[in-house]
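Interim report to the steering committee. The following record documents the input for Response regulator (122 residues).
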Amino acid sequence: MSKTILVVDDSASVRQVVGIALRGAGYEVIEGVDGADALKKLDGRKVHLIISDVNMPNMDGITFVKETKKLADYRFTPIIMLTTESEESKKKEGQAAGAKAWVVKPFQPAQMLAAVSKLVMP
């Protein structure tokens, strides 16, 4: 049974690169174009991990993490922030919201997959 990962980024090219890496490793991928769109995708289906950008229109990544943690079905779903933000203050804000890992762009697919395999829920 393959694991499902929700990838949230307003950049289609980033979603594509992340999606190719994840699918290549055997994961199912759902895509969201921003936090608001991604929340709609959290409709009760099983999601084993979420990878989210921080800076997005409509709903940024930190707000998205906070909103996700309010949903009973997804309260314990691990979230990796994938972002150009490397400031400690942003990282702390992300961790406080509930993000489990922080991967800075540009990233190596292997580095991201290592973080994914550590965090993906059984």
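The chain has a mean pLDDT of 95. The committee is asked to note this result when reviewing the revised timeline.
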